[in-house]
Amino acid sequence: MQLASMQNITANLGGQDVLKGVSFTINSGERLGLIGANGSGKTTTLRVLMGEEAPAKGTVSLASETRLGYVPQYVDGEDDELVIEWLLTDHNALSDRLREAEEALSAAGADEMDAAMAGYQDAIERYDRYETDRWPRRAPRILDSLGLGGKEDQEIGSLSGGEKNVLSLARALLIEPNLLVLDEPGNHLDFLGLAWLEEFLLRFKGGVLIVSHNRHTLDRVAQGILELENGQVTRYRGGYSEYRATKLRNLISQQADYAANQKRLARLEDLVKRLELTARARPSTAAGKRLRARRSQLGRENAQAVERPEMDTSAIEADFGAERTQSNIVLRLRGYSKAYGDLSLLENVDFDLTSGERVAIIGPNGSGKTSLLRDVVSEGAWDNDTVRIGPSIRTGYAAQEQEVLDGDLTILDEIMNAPPQTNETAAFAHLRKFLFTREDLGKKISDLSGGERNRLQLARLTKLQPNFLILDEPTNHMDIPAREAIEEALADYRGSILVVSHDRYFLDKVVDRVVELEDRDLVSFDGNFSEFWGARRTPLDREAGRVATRGSDRKRARAERAGQRADLTSLERRIKEAEADKLELEQRVGRAFEDRKDRDGRRLNRQLERVSAMLEDLYEQWVAKA
Questions:
Q1: Which of 71, 160, 409, 451 could in theory staple to 477 by disulfide, Cβ–Cβ 3.0 to 4.6 A?
Q2: Which H helix or E strand runs over 609?
Q3: Which residues is 33 bridged to in the sheet?
């Protein structure tokens, strides 16, 4: 059943068309990912779909049976507003509207009766359609099922970022939707929360439209990708990896068509020039007729010429530089502990990071990852026995909250002052690599968006050329092309990396060791994130509460996991092997198309589709047995 459709939608923003003839449909049970560069119009598309913004042209259609639940990027409630009050905002609005309509009807005179009756009928139809009277009873049950039980009377400002994400989902589920629209729903979720969200969406019976820059989530959840580019939507089958392989294959094919078309146009132009010379030398009706015919043909073929293909690569040009460090010791922790009051995060921890290593620190939100990185940056020194950094190490830090930047400075001042000092011309040339224009140079850092601040601190970092990168959520607020540009730059980097990130696709590309914060200690695993996750995977239907909270008894939870793993070892081993096969095939498909080996690329892509399908089946078996 078709739940929603957009047909030839044109929408304006700031006097310019951001959507130009956008068309797509969403069917029941269909899960689609909407992707595009920052500023491409994704949020506008969602607003038009939900009726919050009227298009300049085109039509939006929702089936009469469609119940649309929306999960925004941010909770729009006030910090002092209670959770239950915000959750029931729509209920209260519908109730108030019905009460006002009833009062207007009872007070209406004879000449006002028809209008009052129409208003009342509309209000009661809306109220009854969503069974609004059930919401106050359903709200606490939904909160409990999503791990927010008991928080009804807490203020929204007291919730963590992850808890607010889940609260947005709870509000959307109140109307029992059969179409969920989600705008970056995993922004503040840790890796367990993201995995739980993916499983939730896989089990959801209705349609799903998800805007996300998280490529791993798109691979797990999406059955199709809608790419928004140059104001138009192109639909691709499968998740993100299949979309990239298909787009690369199409690009190679278009490049071949373009080259052949250009050769044909060149031959036609040459023929027209020769006919012009002939017509001037020997004027005749026949020569003039042939010349006019070829000119007309050249005009038609120029009008229908194959467009020059362009890769959708980010304009970001990151180069972190640095040679491999000579000293083997990059970072050494001995007896390191971290606590806030009575809350102990890490106790007596030992840890080593050696030259050229790429290590990810992972763990639930609030477990101490950012605190650890900040202590390494602020306290690390060769003469510090607890947090020791090698004597030849030059540290570069990208902070999650971008606190390394001075909010009172302008963009230009920040880059000019960062070592080594440069003049304005050189500073601007460097900033252009990170999408900053000359008009941006005078902007104060305190006025920048999260994405702009993150680009600026990465620009600062590449100017410093450190040989030890400490990165705390370096891809936050970045679109997919920018993330891929950063990954490519880090692939060429020969220094050492210590990174905290919830972007599992990024971690697979960048790190070769994963260290998990568990039971106030650091537990090391050699391999990328997929390999770690295959070995560590836990029952996600029991993890809903951990999306929002850290849990009070981790030892008991770990004991439960150990018992469950004993029965699932064989299945998890197969999942791990399939994940490794999938990752290898993705890389081979990309290389094949880059080398223009289309036949090999198509064959490998078919293998990738089979492995992806098998992996989905293995995950379903695992969830059923867990």
A1: 451
A2: helix 598-625
A3: 210, 225
Tokens of 338: 């971290």
Between the alpha carbon of residue 110 and those of residues 99, 106, 114, 126, 207, the distances in Å are 20, 11, 8, 25, 46
Q: Which one-letter amino acid corresponds to residue 119?
A: G
- The reply to whether the predicted model has a pTM over 0.90 is no
Q: What secondary structure does DSSP assign to 257-314, as a single string?
A: HHHHHHHHHHHHHHHHHHHHHHHHHS--HHHHHHHHHHHHHHHHHHHTPPPPP-----
Instruction: Report the C-alpha gap between 15 and 341 in whole angstroms.
Output: 53
Spatial distance between the Cα atoms of 73 and 188, rounded to a whole number of angstroms: 10
CB atoms under 10 Å from CB of 303, counted, come to 7
Which residues, 6+ apart, have CB-to-CB distance to 481 below 8 Å? Answer: 37, 312, 313, 314, 316
- What dihedral do alpha carbons 33, 34, 38, 41 form, nearest 10°? -170
Largest CA distance in the chain: 101
DSSP label at residue 41? S
Quote the CA–CA distance of 464 and 135 in Å, as a whole number: 55
How many Å apart are CA 86 and CA 92, to the nearest integer?
Answer: 10
Q: pLDDT of 276-312, one tens digit each? A: 777 777 777 777 777 778 788 778 877 877 677 665 5
pLDDT digits (tens, 9 = 90+) for 318-373: 888 767 766 688 999 999 999 888 888 899 999 999 998 999 999 887 788 888 99
